[in-house]
């Protein structure tokens, strides 16, 4: 099946590293996963998965953004969903993961226009109608905060819009206003699709619809009142910007104050539509950062959302871990879940992404990923014991795939994908064996000696695979 134009396939003005990686992705005619196969579903079964999270490509299903449905796209997703269900694996589906049909971007500017609300709702309607009898958990947008900041402020992800001095090689956009406009339209599109689902499908299909954000856990750099206040402000900008309207019906006061007239206001009708529209929240979490107060940024006349935040995020990771890896701080995941519990009334939560990054050429003996998963899953279990209403966990990722910022140069997968092999052969890493052992009832702790046993089994299997890294 050929791929259809999306914002990923028609970009020109972008950093050369990302551009060349996207060209490599185009050669393979895949977006994200390296072409999921029926054998991959069998791998999931063998691993012990009972759920698989994936996104539907809007342009693959409806190439022009609206109008006729592509029968081959429809068949692809039906085949995938049926195969998952037939093997006892739940399909958790995301409707938008940054790949807007290029036709809508060209016609009216995509997410910058209110017209996107109607088109997104119509696209969601097709998905609910065609797949909803087998899909019970829907997420409207993935990492909406990253999409808004990366796509319209710093300009590092499609549609690569930004303005100087906030982005790199900016050719179009306005970093001071567009992130707020797009965020507003994202919330309205989500709420409109959720209203449709609840009115037309939910009773019959018995499903749920939610919203996903990315979040670090943020800790004050010092115990000063300034850094403590800045940390709350940063949480308001990273989490509250989207979650506050979905729970309370409006943006946090500090965002409205600092952004002023640059942030749209909800009408009473819009506030009512958005409030309570999410049955659950999805969380993508990888690491913990420190926060330092930055009051000087508010003195800048032309500010973007990060300057409005008036806080600096500090990556105190030097010398602690190898390059390209995250520190292992499970307390951070517990902290974010406790934050949702205390601030937002303990809503149903799913950990949609959590995993360790390594370089692509790292060994299949990925002990750092095993230690990361062991720590964070343990932290999640502690959070649940402490009352968190978390319903599920997905590690990122099952297979090595094309990463948004690093392309194929970094790796998150439990399974290595050999891009030099015509068949894109998969090889299990040590983490795949550990995760499978855990899912099938094994202990989570390394103290039990389970890792040593898995390592022995892994070594034996790896010797028979003859894979050279």
From TrEMBL:
<comment type="similarity">
    <text>Belongs to the glycosyl hydrolase 1 family.</text>
</comment>
<dbReference type="Pfam" id="PF00232">
    <property type="entry name" value="Glyco_hydro_1"/>
</dbReference>
<protein>
    <submittedName>
        <fullName>Glycoside hydrolase</fullName>
    </submittedName>
</protein>
<keyword id="KW-0378">Hydrolase</keyword>
<dbReference type="GO" id="GO:0005975">
    <property type="term" value="P:carbohydrate metabolic process"/>
</dbReference>
<dbReference type="InterPro" id="IPR001360">
    <property type="entry name" value="Glyco_hydro_1"/>
</dbReference>
<dbReference type="InterPro" id="IPR017853">
    <property type="entry name" value="GH"/>
</dbReference>
<dbReference type="GO" id="GO:0008422">
    <property type="term" value="F:beta-glucosidase activity"/>
</dbReference>
């Amino acid at each position: 099946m050929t791929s259809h134009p999306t914002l990923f396939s028609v970009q020109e003005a972008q950093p050369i590293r990302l551009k060349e990686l996207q060209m490599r992705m185009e050669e393979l005619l895949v977006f994200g996963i390296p072409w999921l196969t029926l054998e991959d579903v069998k791998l999931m079964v063998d691993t012990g998965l009972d759920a698989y999270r994936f996104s539907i490509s809007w342009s693959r299903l409806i190439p022009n953004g609206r109008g006729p449905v592509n029968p081959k796209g429809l068949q692809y997703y039906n085949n995938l969903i049926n195969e998952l269900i037939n093997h006892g694996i739940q399909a958790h589906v995301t409707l938008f993961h940054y790949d807007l049909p290029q036709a809508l971007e060209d016609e009216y500017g995509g997410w910058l226009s209110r017209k996107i609300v109607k088109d997104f709702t119509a696209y969601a309607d097709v998905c609910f109608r065609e797949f909803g009898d087998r899909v019970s958990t829907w997420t409207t947008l993935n990492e909406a905060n990253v999409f808004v900041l990366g796509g319209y402020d710093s300009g590092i992800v499609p549609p690569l819009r930004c303005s100087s001095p906030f982005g790199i090689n900016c050719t179009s956009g306005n970093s001071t206003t567009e992130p707020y406009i797009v965020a507003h339209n994202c919330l309205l599109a989500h709420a409109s699709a959720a209203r449709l689902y609840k009115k037309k499908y939910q009773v019959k299909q018995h499903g749920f619809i939610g919203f996903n954000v990315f979040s670090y856990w943020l800790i004050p750099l010092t115990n000063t009142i300034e850094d403590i206040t800045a940390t709350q402000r940063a949480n308001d900008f990273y989490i509250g910007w989207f979650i506050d309207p979905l729970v309370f019906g409006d943006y946090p006061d500090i965002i409205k104050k600092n952004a002023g007239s640059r942030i749209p206001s909800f009408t009473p009708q819009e506030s009512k539509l958005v409030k309570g529209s999410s049955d659950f929240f999805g969380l993508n979490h990888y690491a913990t950062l420190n926060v330092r107060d930055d009051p000087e940024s508010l003195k800048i006349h032309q500010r973007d959302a990060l300057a409005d935040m008036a806080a600096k995020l500090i990556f105190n990771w030097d010398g602690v871990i190898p390059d390209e890896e995250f520190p292992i701080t499970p307390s951070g995941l517990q902290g974010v879940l406790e934050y949702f519990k205390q601030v937002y009334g303990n809503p149903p939560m799913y950990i949609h992404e959590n995993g360790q990054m390594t370089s692509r050429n790292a060994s299949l003996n990925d002990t750092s990923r095993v230690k990361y998963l062991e720590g964070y899953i343990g932290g999640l279990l502690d959070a649940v014991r402490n009352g968190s209403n978390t319903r599920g966990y997905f590690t990122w990722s099952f297979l090595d795939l094309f990463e948004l910022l690093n392309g194929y140069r970094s790796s998150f997968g439990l399974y290595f994908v050999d891009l030099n092999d015509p068949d894109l052969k998969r090889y299990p890493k040590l983490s795949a064996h550990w995760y499978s052992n855990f899912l099938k009832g094994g202990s989570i702790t390394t103290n039990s000696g389970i890792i040593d046993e898995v390592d022995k089994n892994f070594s034996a299997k790896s010797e028979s695979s003859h894979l050279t890294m």
